[in-house]
Structure formats: structure tokens, C-alpha cells
Specification:
Blueprint: H1 3-31, H2 34-63, H3 68-93
């Protein structure tokens, strides 16, 4: 397995984990009161948008060849960090 493939699989696994966490937050939002529900759903929409950006960048990574994937990797990691931080912040607000 190449380094690119290993990196991609690791990122895919983490993305699935964060998707599950977002699903848990969505379930909590559905149980919240009206005002909180609106606020929570806005956060969840933002998380899903960030998740979509990470997915797009992973698709670009998958399509890259040779050493070009190293260049794409930086943008993946930047989007990744943004999603990670947003999921963690949202998790704290939902408690």
C-alpha cells in the first residue's frame, strides 16, 4: 500500500467517525427546545458543509497522481483541521 493510499484510508475512516458524531449531535438537536433546535440545526448545517469540503478535497487527493498528491495534502489537512475544530466546538455546546 502506498503512502497516499494509507493516508487516504486514514482520512476516510476519520471522516466516517466525525459523520457519526454529527449524526449524534443531530439527534440531540431534534430533542431540544424550539430556540435551541434552530441554533443547533444551524451548527449542524455548517458542520455538514465543512464535511462536504473535506470530501471534495479527498476526491481531489484520490484523483491526483505521483507526487502531486503531496500538494493536495496541505489543502486536505487545512480543511480537516477546520472540520475537526468545528465538530469539537459543537460537541461542547450540545452538552
Amino acid at each position: 500500500m502506498s503512502m497516499k493510499d494509507a493516508y487516504q484510508k486514514k482520512m476516510e475512516a476519520q471522516l466516517k467517525e466525525w459523520s457519526a458524531k454529527i449524526d449524534v449531535l443531530k439527534a440531540k438537536a431534534d430533542k431540544a427546545g424550539a430556540e435551541q433546535k434552530i441554533k443547533y440545526n444551524e451548527m449542524i448545517e455548517s458542520l455538514r458543509a465543512r464535511q462536504g469540503k473535506v470530501r471534495e478535497k479527498l476526491d481531489k487527493l484520490r484523483a491526483s497522481s505521483g507526487t502531486a498528491w503531496e500538494e493536495v495534502r496541505g489543502s486536505v489537512e487545512h480543511a480537516w483541521d477546520e472540520l475537526k475544530n468545528a465538530v469539537e466546538r459543537a460537541g461542547k455546546k450540545f452538552k
